[in-house]
């Protein structure tokens, strides 16, 4: 079996043959270690959402985007911290004709979302149409 140098022994006069099935021979480095004494119940939504792509206290959209963006705000690239207000934004505003699809979504800090909205003119378009943002 490839380069495995495992030795097994059994007691008694009738030795038993042990076989390692390859479907069970997975590498242990596929599992990421949990930092210190972290627990999903401690309230660190950012850590667990970034790690798992989900958290029971965070909307799925935010958790998935948080994992995709590796825990960073798409506007300035700063890490989200526990307690930060996070908002889902459309990279190209819907008011400019873009669709509400995953490829057009990003996660931003609330203040970054405000800054981006002012810069891309989507707030003006929303006000002109009489739609609340």
Automatic annotation (TrEMBL):
Top-level taxon: Bacteria
Q: Give the record's keywords alphabetically.
A: Endonuclease, Hydrolase, Nuclease
Which Pfam family, giving just one, matches this sequence? Answer: HNH
Annotated spans, Disordered: 114-133
The residue ranges of the HNH nuclease domain are 60-114
What Gene Ontology terms describe what this protein does at the molecular function level? endonuclease activity; nucleic acid binding; zinc ion binding
Q: Does the keyword Amino-acid biosynthesis apply?
A: no
Keyword match Cell cycle: no
UniProt-recorded name of the protein: HNH endonuclease
**Biological source species:** Oxynema aestuarii AP17
């Amino acid at each position: 079996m490839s380069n495995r140098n495992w030795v097994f022994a059994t007691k008694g006069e009738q030795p038993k043959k042990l076989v390692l099935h390859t479907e069970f021979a997975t590498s242990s480095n596929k599992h990421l270690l949990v930092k210190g004494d972290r627990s999903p119940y401690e309230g660190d939504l950012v850590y667990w959402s970034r790690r798992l792509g989900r958290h029971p206290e965070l909307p799925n959209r935010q958790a998935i985007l948080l994992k995709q963006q590796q825990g960073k705000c798409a506007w300035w690239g700063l890490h989200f911290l526990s307690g930060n207000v996070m908002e889902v934004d459309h990279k190209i505003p819907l008011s400019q004709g873009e669709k509400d699809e995953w490829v057009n979504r990003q996660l931003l800090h609330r203040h970054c979302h405000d800054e981006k909205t002012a810069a891309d003119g989507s707030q003006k378009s929303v006000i002109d149409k009489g739609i609340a943002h």
